[in-house]
Amino acid sequence: MMDGLPVDMVEEDITTELKEFYNVNGLDDVRVIRDRQTKVSRQLGFLRFRDLNQSRAFVERNFPSIYLHGPNPHNDRGTKVRIAYSREREDRARARAEADWTCIMCAIVNYSTRQKCFRCQAPRPGMLLMGTSIRSKLIRTRWRPRRSSWTTGPESR
């Protein structure tokens, strides 16, 4: 993980500088994290190496920081960029607490202490709603699916 990247640096600039000035071997991919709407760099990036040994060699040789200049160097020193290890998404999913739960409506992971989804406010699966289950609440309120205009035949009349 790289934190504090120059805002104007793109993946190709980072790759070039790392190979030229830091003699990085085994670099497979560089990813700069950008704002979804503005597409401006969030000054955070990730490096993917071919294997763990090459990653370790890079971090151990350069920890805690490297200096990157970017396409338009503002000074001779460059920008100090902090580096550290990060985990793959799959590893983070395994690290969640056992009692945490996934919302069935929006598929977001919620802490075990939440009774409703923090994103869509759907109730926690298996939870009781005011002393009654969700199903019995729907039956009590006589919830029925809407009839659609596309339904035809004697059943729809």
TrEMBL record:
Protein name stated in the entry: RanBP2-type domain-containing protein
GO biological process: mRNA splicing, via spliceosome
PANTHER family: FI21118P1, RNA-BINDING PROTEIN
Transmembrane among keywords: no
Keywords: Metal-binding, Nucleus, RNA-binding, Zinc, Zinc-finger
InterPro entries: Nucleotide-bd_a/b_plait_sf, RBD_domain_sf, RRM_dom, Znf_RanBP2
Keyword RNA-binding included in the entry's annotation: yes
Coiled coil spans: none
Compartments it resides in: Nucleus
CC terms in the record's Gene Ontology section: nucleus
RanBP2-type domain ranges (all copies): 96-126
Domain RRM: 1-88
GO MF, one example: RNA binding
Coarse class of the protein's main subcellular location: nucleus
Pfam families to which the protein is assigned, alphabetical: Zn_ribbon_RanBP (PF00641)
